Amino acid sequence: MNLQGNRLTWLGHATFRIETKDGTVIYIDPWLSNPLCPENEKDVKKCDVLICTHGHGDHIGDAVKIAKQHNPMVVGIFELCAWMQKKGAKQISAMNKGGTQTVAGIKITMTDAVHSCGIEDDDGSMVYGGEACGYVLELPGGVKLYHAGDTAVFGDMQIIHEIYRPEIALLPIGDHFTMGPREAAHACMLLQPKTVIPMHFGTFPMLTGRPGELKKLLGPGGPEILEMKPGQTL
Ligand code: NI
Ligand code: MN
Asked: Would you tell me which of 19, 30, 111, 188 could form a disulfide with 134, CB atoms 3.0–4.6 Å apart?
């Protein structure tokens, strides 16, 4: 796998940090209080772009805090961005599925995801958060990476392959709330990535899917299954 001088760090669950070769720092689905996140990563030092796939607490748990601390450009679906703005985010760049925008030199395409998107507000009420989505990011140097968000497998993953051709796919495999290894193996057939980085597993006991099962289902000839350690940087 060649990241063309960009750096990718997994912080447990669906949380990733990308540092581009130009020095831009991107957080995707920041939930740094997740049990897998290393202690020294719980405080964010810099964030230029904050990308959210949907409004569940295990994806935006630290989004408001980071927005207030570092004033990043917040990217998300329209309704979720409106909520973030209400909570104090100063810079938002809302979008919707099928669209592409360039933020800080990164080409961001919002894709579909099959999942729900309610936001649990501070008072416990459930706020409409638009729909759950995924993203294809084209980083400086041209490397394309797909963060699927939380999703079931869906046939239009083939369209994501046909139009955007991401070579790296970050796929949830934990089961119960998202795809498990069985569904993720089918997603690999549709997406045809070179490299798969499993996520959204092992955080809680009920997220039972494991990279080894996905590897076994795909067999030789499938994509490279790259199992990252929380805190590891590529
Ligand atoms: Ni979710
Ligand atoms: Mn989730």
From this structure: 111
Q: 12 C-alpha vs ligand 2 centroid, how far in Å?
A: 12
Q: How far is the CA of 58 from the centre of ligand 2 (A)?
A: 5
Q: Give residues with Cβ within 8 angstroms of 81, minimum separation 6.
A: 74, 75, 89, 92, 93, 94
- pTM exceeds cut of 0.70: yes
The alpha carbon of 115 and the centre of ligand 1 are apart by a number of angstroms equal to: 7
Q: Could you say which ligand is closest to the alpha carbon of residue 207?
A: 2
Domains in the chain (CATH in brackets) are 7-225 (3.60.15.10)
Calpha distance 143→140 (Å, rounded): 7
Quote the CA–CA distance of 96 and 163 in Å, as a whole number.
Answer: 17
